[in-house]
## 1
Amino acid sequence: MNRLPWDKILSVTPLDLGKLFLSAFIILLVNKVQLVNDRLSALLIALPLTSLLAMVWMHHAGQSSTRLANHAEGTFWFVLPTLPMFLVFPWLLRHGWGFWAALAANCVMTVALFWLTVIVLRRFGIDLMPS
């Protein structure tokens, strides 16, 4: 993996602050909706709002169609290993696991599934983690 340009990553513009506010607002809104309707909040959080916002911001920044396509495709593949978490986590909670233990177990499982996905997809010519 190439050396990351930390100076670009850590510089903050007024537009970045707007993006931060909008993203935080979406999370806050979903959290507030959860107080009255947990299914509606689940539906809202399942919508790929942050991915769509990120692609709009990438387009606004002048990113190429190739980069946008790569981003969307990568997002698809990276979502797959996270899906079991949404079934295993509630199962663990309902079977006596504490919140933090269930969360930790799900993090370990998700990381393992992520790397398994990377390895399997490489065999089919899809490289999620190019060097």
Note: The radius of gyration is 18 Å.
## 2
Amino acid sequence: MRLVDMVGNTPFLYLSFLLERKGIELFAKAEFLNPSGSVKDRAALAMIEDGIESGLLSKGKTILDATSGNTGIAYAMIGAALGYKVRLYAPENLSPERMRILRCYGAELIATSPMEGSDGAYLKAREAALASPDLFFYPDQYNNPANPRAHYLGTGNEIWDQSGGKVTHFIASMGSAGTFVGCARRLKEKNPRIKCVAVQPKSPFHGIEGTKHMASSIKPGNLDESLIDQQVDVTTEEAYEMARRLARTAGIFVGISSGANVAAALRLAEGLPEGSFVATVLCDTGARYSSDVFWEAKK
């Protein structure tokens, strides 16, 4: 088996014990168990394989894109496994763990203004790719249809099968929007009555890494807002608290966006009828945020 063959088919973890109400089920895809530690392995692999198949990615070219961390780590891992160099543009305030991991995989990392966030990294990466198209393969994760397609063919199908077709609600945060759009599109095809709920940071200035506050950001071309049936806003503090709770009471060590997803799922479940089945995503491992001070809180 090749390393890239290990991407996907992640476990579906039982989280119903977190709910105060009975008669509702909550499960989450354990995407932190992908080989590089995040859900982004799926999209990165799909985009790279699509590039190879189309001829846009050939030997000697460097994979180039913008990242807030996880997609970049996935590119770096897959690039190393398949023999491609990787150059990444990322905000300078990327967590030190993510920077170290990227460099361990051998990726070239170019820091961009932290004040401009992921949007600034995106603009710099696009500029570099357009300036030297013969040198780079530019997947453009925010606008590449192979990104949501990876979740349409993979994650969404897995949720349907692992829930035994019982899922009634899917809820997830959005960065490139690939996970949400791909899963929502597939699940609604399976059952048009499934409600798909978008998780959003409550403020444009937030600490939920890997997610976009869509109202104040450059919207990804992958985003299909017609798939959003409802929105749940989550504060950074709520995401931190849930990440701590998952680690300390369930042994599930995941990151901030995972905390946001589960916090939003619990709030959603409060208003649902008995018999509802909620599915969400545990996006990445908490090891990528271990230096963050929020872990030190007592409660």
Note: The chain has a mean pLDDT of 95.
## 3
Amino acid sequence: MAKKTPEINSSSTADMAFILLCFFLMTTTMDQDKGLQRRLPPMPDPNQKVEDQKVNRRNIIVVKINSADRLLAGSEPMDVSQLKDKIKEFLTNPTDDPNLPEKEEIEIDNFGPCMVSKGVISLQNDRGTSYQAYMAVQNELVKAVNELRDDFAMANYGKLYLKCNEEEQAVVRKAVPQNISEAEPKDVSKK
């Protein structure tokens, strides 16, 4: 007679699989999606009357990226590497050029009166714009604002914007606002 081989006891296999599953769930890190950091305006009061806000044309610079990833800032074609300096010049208006944005004196809490640019950057892109070109332009726009904030913080507090405390950073943000408006992407190729 053939000898019967003993079976392996598998009653604890499910328990071991559960323990391994728990181990991997607790030790594995999940990547978090990162997006562009933008502060949205507060929701308007539903009872508030809608008023057309007139923005002076000189206070807006239109930055366009076409489907071939070519950049146009204002009316000038340019390379992405030139964009930061163009935006800084636009926002500061150092020579009080009548074609560049107006400045308005506002009272900032814990600081006093300050001249603030009314400049707005309007970003428009084509649906065919590559992600790399779009992000490169976004980075240059934010870099320009951050450098202006660093300049203001150094002049008034003797340190960079990120080294300032929360109260000082709030003052810097009011003195150098980040006004970037993004238009709905257009599909120019289908026209």
Note: Residues 58-190 form one domain.
